[in-house]
Model the fold of this input.
Amino acid sequence: MTDWKSEAEPGRHTVSDFPFDDGRRLDVTLAYHTLGSLDADAGNAVMLLHGTTGSGRQFLEPTTADFLFRSGRPLDVGRFFVIMPDAMGHGGSSRPRDGLGPDFPRYGYGDIVEGQHRLLVQGLGVERLRLLLGTSMGGMQTWMWGERYPDVPRALMTIASLPERITGRNLLWRRMLIHLIESDPGYADGRYNKQPAGLGHAMALFQLMAGSAGRMASDLPSIDAADTQIDRTETRALDGEDANDVIWEFDASRDYDPAPGLPAIRAPLLALNFEDDGLNPVELGGLERAVAKVPNGRGMTLPAGPKSRGHQTLHVAEIWCDHLGELLARTQG
Done:
């Protein structure tokens, strides 16, 4: 078995005086990992964008990497140069916990996408992408990329996302998550000495919303099982997350609304969602409305099955990698 985390090459690129959309300016460091080698003409570059609270290393987990990067797989690293950036505010990139705490700029998705573009062009010297693929938050940003930089990607693939302003239940639980942290007296307006308990409650809510109702029905058959999962989730969050980081990560979606610009997307786009994804409900018809406005857009909703995990099916590449392969084949020429 390949240890993909050891195989990946880490890198860092600093953007001096980065201009945030709110008018603030700050030197920002953007972290990333790569697999494979860049061709002389840079025609084999692929960029993968991760989800909220994650990092580019999510793609190095075996349930994803083994089905994408091995020889003969859609993103065989013997053929492709794979770039996995950490979004601003996430992973090894600049974020509140680095020292500024609540004084760190309140970045939005627009700032994240601008940072990704600067990393790609200025940091890595790559001006065109064979493929841009994003999952969840990264999928949302992939729609934005298609509008802002229509000549950069040859193909686009979004997974577990919708290109529309966040409203309704999706907005409500995000605001609840932020309030769970901010209303905890231990949060102290973001100037805490230890992580507030509300951070653990917030991440338990996130796990609930992103999970599969079907899997939870079998995995949590009793009060003891449910309580154990809550305790495990909250302990992991308090040990590994930072309250300000999490608030900023979820608040960043406030500027997201690519719907008006969808006709500007020129690259062939495949939007793939999951039937049991509660964050992107099938019954609201958002995917169909969106792809109808994209000149070369196609949408698919994969049915739930034994290996489905709700929104988190995005981590199970076995389920969707063949569709990626078909997109690459269709856009080869």
